[in-house]
Amino acid sequence: MSYKLPDKLRTTVVGSYPYFPEALKAFQLRRRGDRGPEYESLVREATRKAITDYLEAGIDILADGEQRREDMAVFFAEELEGFEISEPVRIFDNVYFRKPVIVGKIAWRREILVDDWRYASSLAAGRPMKVTITGPYTMYSWSFDKIYGDMRKAILDMAEAFRREIEALVRAGATFIQIDEPALSTRAEKRDVLIAGEAFEIMLGGLSNVKRITHICYGKMERLFPEILDFPIDQYDFETKNRNYELLNVLKEYSFDKELALGVIDVHSSRIETVEEIMDGITRGLELLPPEKLYIKPDCGLKRLKRETALAKLRNMVEAARRAREELS
To answer: Positive or negative CA dihedral for 219, 187, 91, 25?
Structure first.
């Protein structure tokens, strides 16, 4: 089955979706070290449900909902060489986090996402299935380093490991590869941006016939410019709705002309944006870029919302994009 993508204002998602009961049960099994048939069956059923919702909403470019990932950093740390996972660490109040701990040289040891991507693609009704990977800068920032003592060396080793994974995904047929770097905008010293740029060159440099994407959100993103524009990236996926599209003014300063995935849904609010409100956001994006270069999506992953809220937001987003395309015709 093939699906004809719209030629402008395509809709997509960042990655995560509210967890289904099957995913929550799978997390319990995984924490106990049980990754047997029941675990796999639960993950697949939760993934199927997430993709069904994305399709019902009418999203053009899908993700698998990240129903296997209880935490975006811990998940990859468990799959790479060189990491252990700490006992729960208190962050604040009664919120605890199992933190990755770097205890050896970081390296790739096996395919992490290929089977999940194949399975999710089989359910996508011909739509492209995006792959999301937690970037090495964020992985390092959210880990204890007991061995390297050198941020750049650790990040570049991690980038080499992820390059192996990305090559396996591309061989399997993946054409949309997204590197998520939410930590990069929280510090964003120029040294950090340059190290991240080196890592992106290792991971994505030289790839052809692949849409190379990075997602960054909720920080001082203006500090990333202009260096981030030199990354080997085709599409920049930014959070913009939450801060009333202030970042668009920054992009205008740098004559931004690459593809932009524009956040038009606030994932930190349970309020469901109206179609007209989302269309206003799209109009702001069109002041910067032609519609062929503008993708429409939520600010970030949807996992912290209730399923009914997330689905309602996506439905309105898709309808807003449809009406905006009609107005441009």
So the answer is: positive
Q: Within a 10 A sphere around the Cβ of 213, how many other Cβ atoms?
A: 25
**Sheet-wide strand order for 144-145:** 81-92, 95-107, 144-145
Domains of the chain: 10-20+52-71+112-328 (3.20.20.210)
Is residue 134 a contact partner of residue 75, using CB atoms and an 8 Å limit? yes
Residue partners of 316: CB distance under 8 A and separation at least 6: 272, 273, 274, 275, 278
Instruction: For 249-303, write each residue's pLDDT tens digit.
Output: 999 999 999 999 999 999 999 999 999 999 999 999 999 999 999 999 999 999 9
Q: What is the 3-state secondary structure (H, E, C) of 293-326?
A: HEEEEECCCCCCCCHHHHHHHHHHHHHHHHHHHH
- Encode pLDDT of 84-108 as tens digits: 998 776 665 666 678 999 999 999 9
